Model the fold of this input.
Amino acid sequence: MKKTKSLIIAVCLVLFVAAVAFAASKMSVQIKEAQLRATPDYLGKVTGKASYGDQVNIEGTQGAWKKVKTVKGAQSGWMHDSALSEKEIRMSAGDKDVKIAASSSELQLAGKGFSKEVENEYKKKNSAVTYKWVDQMERIKISQPQIQKFMKEGELK
Amino acid sequence: MKTMKKSRLFMAVSVLAVTAFSAAAFYGCQAMGPLAKVGAATGIITSDQADSIEKVSTAVSKASETITPEQEYYIGRTIGAVISSKYKVYQNDIVTDYINVMGQSLSKFSDMPETFGGYHFLVLDSDEINAFAAPGGLIFVTRGILRCCKDEDAVAAVLAHEIGHVQLKHGTESIDDSRMTSVVTTILAEGAKNLGPKELASLTTAFEGSISDITNKLVTNGYSREYENQADKAAVTIMKRAGYNPTALVSMLEMMGKVMKPDGMDFAKTHPSPQSRIEVVKEVIGGSAKADVNTARLARFNRNLANI
Done:
């Protein structure tokens, strides 16, 4: 009898904990390309990558960092809060998604509103504005080792 | 008796579990009542649609909060394009690399190290003393402002101030709320379909309006004193976290105070006087900081920006 009681309590507790965890366990990557790191800081080794809209399970928090595991591919690592959204990001929205997105803040629609299509339209109407330099800026990639070297040489943190 | 107790306990725990699940399911449920009203009023959505939105709605306090990082990225790209079209670009790989490594390192110590497209930096070939930050992290500094820097920490102060504007979303904050209201109602009307010509035209109008709202602040009128002070405070925090000497921001402002013409067409026009900013910055830094110059950083500053 006692055994059954403790078992029921245990099961309920597990359910409760799972329910609480469920409330904040899943987040979405809200930036174009994200990196997962071995430690909760930018000097941590890159352990994986995730893309816009990818969902991750939150396994821990430390300051502004979250320990995550990607739902697709099960890659583990740390990501900064600013790369993550509590909203689910729907890459190609259906009618139902649009309704949900309008009525709650749970869902975010990718590619809607100000998008590549709107930029192209703006370009057509404003031919004096050149995107050459902006495109070139975006191609500048600074690697993790470059930043580490810069910080070390400059006696920075 | 025992069974009674057990079932009561079971009930209590179940209720807790169910409550937690419901809380999870409804967590973050906010809505957009006012937008639905506007949408219906403008005829973009039917009143039925508006009603259903209204039912689950509370309110969106500011339209700028509806801008997703992806939309912020597209706004930033066009702001960046407008600025880099207005000025000549300084094409020097050594300088560009130096500014980008420094800027990206600094951005990692901001409160918003990650943006949709990341932080990128470009030097403008202009004697004007100026710097601009487009939403999402495209940052521009002129040769003129770099010439005001006497060491690397001063350059870091300029870049950290601009990163501060990005982190605090001062650009998108400048967008008139009505633009985003129009964007949201257009998305509703469009549904899951591809953009029709009418919707595309309406979004483009809202986009053009947003671009001019921001360039008005960046290029013509400047941000409020409050925003500049906020960006200065953010700069001090970023510099401290990264290991730079924040007093470099004070020396930078002093230098600018000396060389800037008060009625000039640059920073002077769009920023509060350096003197008034210095007082705020000094207060934030506190009394203990000294203006020591790090020799390792000074050496590489001289090496990379020798001919700026």
